[in-house]
TrEMBL record:
It comes from Megalops atlanticus (Tarpon). This is Solute carrier organic anion transporter family member. Residues 294-309 have a biased composition (Basic and acidic residues). Residues 37-332 form the Major facilitator superfamily (MFS) profile domain. GO terms for biological process: monoatomic ion transport; sodium-independent organic anion transport. The keyword Transport applies.
Amino acid sequence: MTEPAREADERLTSQEALCATDTKATKGPCCSTLKMFIVALSFAYFSKTLSGSYMKSSITQIERRFDLSSSLIGLIDGSFEMGNLLFLAAVSHFGAKMHRPKLIGAGCLLMAIGSGLTGLPHFFMGRYKYDTLIQSSMNENISISPCLDPNAQEIPLKPSLDIDKGCKRDPQSNMWIYVFLGNALRGIGETPVTPLGISYIDDFAKPENSAFYIACLQTIGLLGPMFGFSLGSMCARLYVDIGFVNVDSVTITPKDARWVGAWWLGFLVSSVIMLLAGLPFWFFPKSLPRQGKGQREPLSHQDPPDHSGPHAMKLTDIAKGKLPSPFSSHRP
């Protein structure tokens, strides 16, 4: 081989090596950034399901602490769906045209503020005071409504409309409004997480990989309720004013009907978790090169964008050879 030909081969080899280096440099950041986004979104899924399950588990403690009626406690429990429903369509429509990772980060920050606001009334309500004596009924042969005062001088033996008035309870404090607003704010903050996160993965991942990534998100999200209910069970065993009063002076136990657990503690924990979950989204780019495209473009610039790889072409050839085609009927 002559010297000019040898130099041409060496130059061609150098160009191919440079092309391969560019391909790896293009593919590496794309795949690593997308996978980092999936990990961050999985943690956000975990934190939002943990907070939601903890709210369900502590609703009884909130009812006892604020002395709420069933209608008000149902309103507080449904405030999350109210906030989520009001903003879900708007955020999904307009958020797709904006910086989706930053919107998800803002949603996590909003959820963290909502959880913190839910547990905040504990620090402004004063100490919990429970009755030291449980009074029994005066006469076991007389049916007395549980809503009436047993110390009353006259006990009506016949049902009347006054009994329904005695069943209506006024809340012990108006601080329950902050619990309502915090839960609604948490519902508003959750609106961009699922639709914008899944659309971001679907836009920049391979079609054959996007389903697997979404399945991983759902799997991690299923772990949230397990830890959320465990956190609720642990906080329910702690006295509501733990850290502010001497626990040894408390004469009731968690088995007592007057017991109120530390319902506020889990909301502060979930607020910190959601705040940490939202931090990575502020550093992701608005868009990424589609996964796998950086590997094909330097090798062949003349291929169409939807050109399948060699493996897909091989499967197509096999299908053509094995499956009958309705357009391949032979004419006589």
